[in-house]
Amino acid sequence: MIHPVHAPLMAYRWQPFVEVVEISGIDLASADIYLQVRLYPDQPGDPLVALLRNDNLNSQGLAVRFVSQDALGLNTFTIQIRINETTIEQLLPFPNGTEIGAAVELAYDLVIDAPGLSKARWMTGPFLIQPGVTQA
Predict the structure, then answer these.
(1) Is the distance from CB of 24 to CB of 79 less than 8 angstroms?
(2) Per CATH, is 5-130 categorized as 2.60.40.10?
(3) pTM for this entry
(4) Which sequence spans correspond to the domains of the chain?
(5) Main-chain phi, psi angles of 88, to 5 degrees
(6) Beta partners for residue 124, in sequence order
(7) Is the dihedral of CA 23, 17, 61, 67 positive or negative?
(8) Over the stretch 11-57, which tens digit does the pLDDT of each residue have?
(9) Cβ contacts of residue 23 below 8 Å, gap of 6+?
């Protein structure tokens, strides 16, 4: 059984969000990977943001890169998570009456479905959007 890493992800309102995570021990070359951001864990309906694998470092989504293979044959990959600034600004508004200038706490899951493994959450936790001063 996979026990997901519980880690916050922090975005800033007036800039794109880019985070790189490293995963070792599984082959992500042909894995299905997705990330969803919701108002709260297990929120029904469509997510606020749904990222799919696209392998393009410059566009919104999940880009997978092979890093290395150790002496035992275990692979290490990175996954770049990218959410465009326009998505942060437009699709992640101030929910639940949150006032402008306040931080917003949402929830996310990163799910990997790799050949030979069961679909599982690999990362989960709060997705924090911090307010900013510069809006240009």
Answers:
(1) no
(2) yes
(3) 0.87
(4) 5-130
(5) -60, -45
(6) 6, 109
(7) negative
(8) 998 899 999 999 988 889 899 999 999 999 999 999 999 999 998 99
(9) 76, 77, 78, 79, 112, 122
Token pair recorded at residue 102: 């306040």
> What span, in angstroms and rounded, lies between the C-alpha atoms of 95 and 33?
27
Distance between CA atoms of 113 and 121, rounded to whole angstroms?
Answer: 9
Q: Token match 């042909």: residue?
A: 30
Rg of the chain taking only CA atoms, in angstroms: 16
Q: Which residues contact 31 (CB under 8 A, 6 or more apart)?
A: 53, 64, 112, 113, 114, 115
Nearest partner of 53 among 3, 110, 125, 6, judged by Cα? 110
Strand order in the sheet with 75-83: 17-24, 75-83, 61-69
In this structure, the chain runs to a length of 136
